[in-house]
C-alpha cells in the first residue's frame, strides 16, 4: 500500500514532490499551503522588477521543458505562470489545500500527526510521511530599527509589496541593497519623485546578459530536436565550471572580482559613488547581485545612496547619524529569516524531541534532507542546499528523487531514519568542503547564523550532490522503533 504523505508548501519544492508522486501512481498525499495561491516565493515576491538571475531554461523542471519562455532570464509573472501550468498539467492542483497553515507536526506512535488551521478551524490528520517544502526565504525579516511603528507614511517589505500604493511623485526610502533591492530600485526610481537608497553594506554586482527571445529563437526551441536540452545543459555546465570555482577562496575568485569591478567602473563614472559601492570583502561571501540596471539607477539625479547608519525611523522619515531624510514611503528590502528554516512550525520527532532544541546550534540535515530523531520526515531545500551559482530547481529535483527512493524503502520496513554514522560522515564532508569556500569569510550574510556557521549553502559541485542523493537509501537509513534511544542534540565540530 502507498504511504500517506503530507507535503507542506506549494512552491517549487512541494509541487515537484506532488508531481513525482502523481507520476509514480501515488495519490495518497495532501499539499498544505497557507496562502491562497501556489508558487511560494514566486507568489510572494511580486515587487516591480522581480525576476530570476538564473536563465529560464535551467530555472525550470527537467521533466517539463517549457518551450515558451519569452526572456533569457525569467520575470516573476512568467515563473509563476509556469508553476501554475505545471500544477494543472500534472493534476496536482486539486490536491492542494489552500489557506491552510500547518502549525504542528508530531511523530507519535509510528506516524506523523499534522495539525493545520484553516482560519480558526483546527484539524489534526495522520500521515506516514511529512515532506517539508517551505523553502529558505519564506519569512520576511523587517529591520530591527527603533521607531518603525512611529512612521506616518506607508511602509512594507519587498516580499509583501503594496500594489495599491502608487509611487508616482513620492519620496521613497529603500532600506537594503541586496538582490531584491537591486531589482526593484530601477523601477521605483522611474516612478518616485526622489529615492533614497539606504545601503549598509555594498554588494558585488555582475552584469545580467538578459535578452528577449525573438520569434525565431522561440520557434527553434520548440521545434529543433534537442536544442532545448543542449542549451539547458550548456547553461548548467557553464555555471558549474565557471561560477562554482569562483566561490572558493583564493585565486579562482579573481576573474569574478575583475568582472565586477569592470562593471562598476563602466556603469558608475562618479568616483565618490563608486567608492560607496565598492565592497570590502571577497566576492561571493554575500550573494552576488546579478543585474545590469541597478548601478545606472543609482547614478540618476533623483536617486541618492545613503551610507550613514540609520539611527531611527521617525514619523516623517529616516534619521541617520548625519541627519533626517523626509520620505512618505519606506520599502524594506531587508531579506528573510533564512536560518530559521521550519520555524515557527512546532516539529517533534521520536520521544517528543523538538526540532528547535535539536537545531539549537544551527540547522543541519543529512543531504539537507533528513534529520536524526525525526523518522519519515524529509526536507526540500533544507539546510546546506542553497547555491550561490546554479539552479535550486536542480537541487530540489535531486532531493525529490531521493525522497522517492526512501518511500520505496520505508514501504517495506516501516519508519526509517538516517543512521548516525551516515550523519557523521555527512558532517565531515560538509565541514571539509565548507572550509574551502568564501562564505565563512569576514562578511555578514543570510547564508549563516549570527554565530557565523554557514547553515544554508551547499559547498560542493551540484554533480556531487546529485551522486550523493542518488545512492540507494538502505546504506544511510535504518528502520527505527519508537522506543529507541535518541541521538544526542548537536555535535561538537
Ligand atoms: P538580502 O540579500 O538578505 O539583503 C537584505 C538587505 O537589507 C542587505 O542589503 C542588508 O544589509 C539590508 N538590511 C537588513 N537589515 C538592515 C537594517 N537593519 N538596516 C539597514 N540595512 C539592513 O535579501 P534580498 O535582497 O531579499 O535577497 C535574498 C535572497 O533572495 C538573495 O540573496 C537571492 O538568493 C534571493 N533573490 C534572488 C533573486 C534572483 O534573481 N534569483 C532576486 C531576489 C532575491 P547588510 O548587507 O548590511 O546585511
Describe what you observe in this structure.
With 493 residues, the chain is α/β, with parallel strands linked by helices. The chain has 2 domains: 5-139 and 337-479, FAD/NAD(P)-binding domain (3-Layer(bba) Sandwich), CATH 3.50.50.60; 148-212 and 249-332, 3-Layer(bba) Sandwich (FAD/NAD(P)-binding domain), CATH 3.50.50.60. The chain is built from 13 helices and 21 strands. The strands form 6 sheets. Strands 3-2-1-7-19 form a 5-stranded parallel beta sheet, covered by helices on one side. A hairpin with a 2-residue loop joins β15 (317-320) and β16 (323-326). α1 (12-23) crosses α11 and α11 packs parallel to α13. The longest helix is centred in the last third of the chain and has 22 residues, at 392-413. The chain is globular, with a radius of gyration of 23 Å. The two termini are 41 Å apart. The mean pLDDT is 96. It binds NADP nicotinamide-adenine-dinucleotide phosphate (NAP). The site of NADP nicotinamide-adenine-dinucleotide phosphate (NAP) has 26 residues, from α4. It holds the Pfam family FMO-like. It comes from Nonomuraea cypriaca. InterPro entries: FAD-bind_Monooxygenase_sf, FAD/NAD-bd_sf, Flavin_mOase-like. Keywords: FAD, Flavoprotein, Oxidoreductase. This is NAD(P)/FAD-dependent oxidoreductase.
Amino acid at each position: 500500500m502507498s504511504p500517506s504523505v503530507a507535503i507542506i508548501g506549494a512552491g517549487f519544492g512541494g509541487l515537484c514532490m506532488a508531481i513525482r508522486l502523481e507520476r509514480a501512481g501515488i495519490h495518497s498525499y495532501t499539499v498544505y499551503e497557507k496562502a491562497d495561491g501556489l508558487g511560494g516565493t514566486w507568489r510572494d515576491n511580486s515587487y516591480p522588477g522581480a525576476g530570476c538571475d538564473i536563465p529560464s531554461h535551467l530555472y525550470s523542471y527537467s521533466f517539463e521543458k517549457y518551450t515558451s519562455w519569452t526572456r533569457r532570464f525569467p520575470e516573476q509573472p512568467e515563473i509563476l505562470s509556469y508553476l501554475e501550468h505545471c500544477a494543472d498539467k500534472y493534476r496536482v492542483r486539486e490536491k492542494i489545500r489552500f489557506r491552510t497553515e500547518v502549525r504542528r507536526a508530531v511523530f507519535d506512535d509510528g506516524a506523523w500527526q499534522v495539525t493545520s488551521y484553516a482560519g480558526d478551524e483546527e484539524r489534526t490528520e495522520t500521515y506516514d510521511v511529512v515532506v517539508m517544502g517551505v523553502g529558505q526565504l519564506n519569512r520576511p525579516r523587517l529591520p530591527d530599527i527603533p521607531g518603525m511603528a512611529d512612521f506616518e507614511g506607508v511602509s512594507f517589505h519587498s516580499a509583501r509589496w503594496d500594489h495599491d500604493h502608487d509611487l508616482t511623485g513620492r519620496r521613497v526610502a529603500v532600506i537594503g541593497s541586496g538582490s531584491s533591492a537591486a531589482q526593484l530600485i530601477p523601477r521605483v526610481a522611474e516612478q518616485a519623485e526622489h529615492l533614497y537608497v539606504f545601503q549598509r553594506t555594498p554588494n558585488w554586482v555582475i552584469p545580467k546578459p538578459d535578452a528577449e527571445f525573438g520569434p525565431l529563437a522561440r520557434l527553434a526551441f520548440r521545434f529543433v530536436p534537442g536544442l532545448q536540452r543542449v542549451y539547458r545543459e550548456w547553461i548548467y555546465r557553464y555555471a558549474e565550471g565557471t561560477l562554482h570555482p569562483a566561490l572558493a577562496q583564493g585565486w579562482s575568485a579573481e576573474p569574478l572580482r575583475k568582472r565586477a569591478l569592470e562593471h562598476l567602473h563602466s556603469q558608475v563614472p562618479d568616483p565618490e559613488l563608486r567608492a560607496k559601492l565598492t565592497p570590502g570583502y571577497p566576492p561571493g561571501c554575500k550573494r552576488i547581485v546579478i543585474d545590469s540596471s541597478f548601478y545606472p539607477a543609482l547614478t540618476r539625479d533623483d536617486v541618492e545612496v545613503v551610507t550613514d547608519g540609520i539611527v531611527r525611523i521617525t514619523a516623517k522619515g529616516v534619521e541617520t547619524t548625519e541627519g533626517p531624510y523626509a520620505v512618505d514611503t519606506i520599502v524594506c528590502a531587508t531579506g528573510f529569516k533564512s536560518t530559521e528554516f521550519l520555524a515557527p512550525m512546532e516539529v517533534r520527532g521520536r520521544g517528543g524531541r523538538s526540532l528547535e532544541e535539536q537545531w539549537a546550534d544551527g540547522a543541519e540535515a543529512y543531504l539537507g534532507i533528513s534529520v536524526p530523531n525525526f523518522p519519515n520526515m524529509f526536507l526540500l531545500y533544507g539546510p546546506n542546499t542553497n547555491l550561490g551559482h546554479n539552479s535550486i530547481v536542480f537541487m530540489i529535483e535531486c532531493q525529490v528523487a531521493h525522497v522517492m527512493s526512501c518511500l520505496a524503502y520505508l514501504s517495506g520496513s516501516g519508519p526509517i531514519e538516517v543512521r548516525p554514522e551516515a550523519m557523521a560522515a555527512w558532517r565531515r564532508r560538509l565541514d571539509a568542503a565548507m572550509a574551502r569556500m568564501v562564505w565563512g569569510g569576514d562578511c555578514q550574510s543570510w547564508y549563516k547564523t549570527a554565530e557565523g556557521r554557514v547553515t544554508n549553502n551547499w559547498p560542493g559541485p551540484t554533480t556531487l550532490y546529485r551522486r550523493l542523493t542518488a545512492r540507494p537509501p538502505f546504506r544511510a537509513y535504518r528502520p527505527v522503533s519508537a522506543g529507541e534511544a535518541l541521538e544526542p542534540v548537536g555535535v561538537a565540530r
